[in-house]
Amino acid sequence: MAERGAVLEGLRAYRMIAGMWVRSGMTYRASFVFTLFGNLVMTGLDFVGILLMFSHVDSLAGWSLPEVAFLYGASVTSFGIAHLAAGSMPQLGSRIRDGSFDVLLVRPVPVLAQVGGDRFSVRRLGRAVQGGAVLGWALVAADIDWTVSRVLLVPLMVLAGAAIFVALFVAGAAFQIYAQDAAEVQNAFTYGGTTMLQYPPAVFGKDLVRGVTFVLPLAFVNWVPAAHVLGRPYPLALPGWTAFVSPLVAAGCCALAGLVWRTGLRSYRSVGS
Q1: Per the UniProt record, which residue ranges are transmembrane (predicted)?
Q2: Mapping DSSP to helix (H, G, I), strand (E, B) and coil, where does residue 60 land?
Q3: Less packed terminus of the chain by CB within 10 Å, N or C?
């Protein structure tokens, strides 16, 4: 019961902090619109690269353009939602180095909520919108034999994928408590992970696919559930039921990330500045 109360308190604090930054950001609305449009264009360049590639080939490891677009859209939409919610966490290292992290520790507000809501920006929504647009096109263009399970799995996959990426952001922030300057290491798993997931698993070596399935379970963001939706072979010949375990994987990742965060926070020693 106390744990539940702490979670609700953290969510309430996060909402208040994020709302404050939203009101601040909307002060200059023209700047907000131009920046949001810029984010849409910049994130869309990744998909332009895929389109250029398919202008020279008919398929990629046996996957058609709509099928690769499905992977791209699912990955980018999930990451975009997570980045909107927790995109400030890679900046924790700079807060630790300049001593401002100590200020967060003495406030009567959960530290994780403060770090997550810090400099919240609606401009980040551009990535999720752009990914959702590509995913919507892929759902129409791909040759999918729609069933009830496939219809339900698409939104479930996107939300579970977002939760997995949020867990990575939190775990990465906890790692920065120890390393203090590890934003690029964290980005390698978050930004690098979403880029990898935009392509079929057959493009990569089996050892890498095993690693992102059984060690860092990014494959459950889109590769595994997409296999069911698109009727493609499952990565590593996994059984069919694994397409539906993404929510359980996400819950496990979030629980583990929370444990890592609490451990890191208890071991924090001020830099003294």
Answers
A1: 32-57, 69-87, 152-175, 238-261
A2: strand
A3: N
